[in-house]
Design a protein that fits this description.
The structure holds two protein chains of two kinds. Chain A is an alpha/beta fold. In chain A, 38% of the residues lie in helices and 12% in strands. The two termini of chain A are 12 Å apart. The chains are: A alpha/beta, B alpha/beta.
């Protein structure tokens, strides 16, 4: 089934009202960003990838899976890239209120389950506390959708830890789906930290973290090794990640109030 | 000199523990770390900010994110006016971790300050119900595990103090 067939704004109000499976259905909301992605990737990268994941997921879900797509949040909280041209950013409060508004509308339509697929790291903290807040106030079941896929070929440990923006993974994805938008001649390798740095203070995932703006840790805006990217790796990783997302959605659909139930996987 | 801002929530941690166990443990830790002779860092300890952004049914005096953000931002602005440039958010509540992370980033960007986050969970201090006995013990006497966590916190402060200041007072350059 196409993404369009599951996209709520593509339906009439009467069609949404008449959907028979709303109480059990999961609605997927992507949260992206428009922000600098180094000299070699387009600024729309995160939101473009949200579209890619939705299209791939919709194509692989069984036709009878009760799963719909909300209009995406295209502009994200990207103020960490302040100073780099091409970044459009909203505040943490605007992002929070947008999430509340979307949840409220879905609830008014009769949906009770929301899965958020986030493609921009700068949104993560706000999503984490806001989704907890919505779940608490709106009696809605909410998950942050994770693909859980083990990537093959695996990223190096250094890239896995500190290749989190416009690096090997993201550049490979876009080489696979939209190669004409990638300028590999401008790709660079620049890390915000090294695994073997002394001490425990790091930009992310450490006992002590320092709050960073991109220009504190990268002159180019790249955090990772974009030069190692290839379309072949990107195509494999996209297939693995899509399979991970689909498996997770089917798992979510198979439970009602935490109790597993059967669902067609044909 | 570092300004250390302790942040603790109040929540139900079981029948054996007070609602403010996070604050009690956190303050023992930060006080313990601040008097260690080998820290080599001068620390100004701010009174604890008491809030939690957790679920209403398990937390006490829970607040919404806008209030929590305003609280942290205004305290950091006051510290900046007093001349502090490096501020460490020492947070005890698992429910506040993502909020502290977002707050720190925005304050670094908007105010040009150097913000750091240390969550007690990363120092091995777990407020889960299964640790109630251990926590109760720590409230009543000096314990080796809490002393070890204080030593680790002191070492992190030393590393933070040594970190180079932001260039141009943290002002972000507009790139072409």
């Amino acid at each position: 089934m196409s993404l369009r067939a599951r996209y709520l704004p593509a339906m009439s109000a009467a069609r949404i009202a008449a959907l028979p499976d709303k109480a059990d259905a999961w609605v997927i909301l992507t949260t992206g960003a428009i922000e600098q992605h180094g000299p070699h990737l387009p600024v729309a990268f995160d939101s473009l990838m949200g579209q890619v994941w939705c299209e791939r997921i919709a194509a692989e879900l069984p036709a009878d899976a009760a799963c719909y797509f909300a209009p995406p949040i295209t502009l994200g909280k990207s103020n960490e890239h302040t100073g780099f041209p091409g970044t459009l950013s909203i505040s943490k409060e605007t992002l929070r209120l947008q999430l509340h508004a979307i949840a409220r509308q879905l609830g008014a339509w009769g949906f009770a389950r929301l899965a958020v697929l986030n493609t921009h790291g700068g949104n993560s903290s706000v999503l984490d506390y806001t989704l907890r807040e919505i779940a608490d106030k709106c009696s809605m079941e909410i998950v942050l959708l994770k693909h859980g896929a083990r990537l093959e070929p695996a990223l190096s440990a250094q890239e896995e830890a500190y290749g989190f923006h416009a690096g090997e993974l993201e550049t490979s994805w876009l080489l696979a789906v939209l190669p004409e938008r990638v300028k590999m001649t401008l790709a660079v390798c620049e890390y915000p930290a090294r695994l073997d740095d002394a001490g425990e203070l790091r930009p992310e995932c450490a006992p002590a973290t320092f709050a960073w703006a991109s220009q504190d840790v990268s002159a180019s805006g790249v955090m990772g090794d974009a030069t190692a990217a290839t379309a072949e790796k990107g195509a494999r990783w996209i297939a693995q990640i899509t399979a991970g997302y689909v498996a997770r959605i089917l798992e979510l659909l198979a439970r009602v109030d935490g109790v597993p139930r059967s669902i067609s996987t044909q | 000199m570092l300004a250390v801002v302790p942040i603790a929530g109040m929540a139900d941690h079981g029948d054996e523990l007070p609602l403010d166990v996070e604050e009690q443990v956190l303050m023992r830790l930060v006080r313990g770390a601040s008097v260690m002779r080998d820290v080599g860092v001068r620390v100004l300890l701010v009174p604890p900010l008491r809030f939690v952004t957790g679920a209403a049914n398990t937390s006490a005096f829970a607040v919404g994110p806008p209030l929590a953000h305003a609280f942290i931002d205004e305290v950091c602005a006051s510290l900046a006016m007093a001349g502090f440039r490096k501020i460490v958010l020492c947070n005890a509540s698992a429910d506040n971790e993502s909020l502290c992370d977002a707050a720190a980033r925005d304050i670094r960007i908007a105010r040009g300050l150097q913000l750091f986050c240390v969550n007690l969970g990363a120092l091995g201090v777990d407020f889960g119900l299964e640790n109630a006995g251990r926590l109760k013990d720590a409230l009543e006497r000096d314990t080796e595990w809490l002393s070890a966590a204080a030593r680790r916190l002191a070492a992190l402060w030393t590393e933070i103090a040594k970190r180079a200041p932001l260039p141009d007072s943290g002002k972000l350059e507009v790139k072409s």
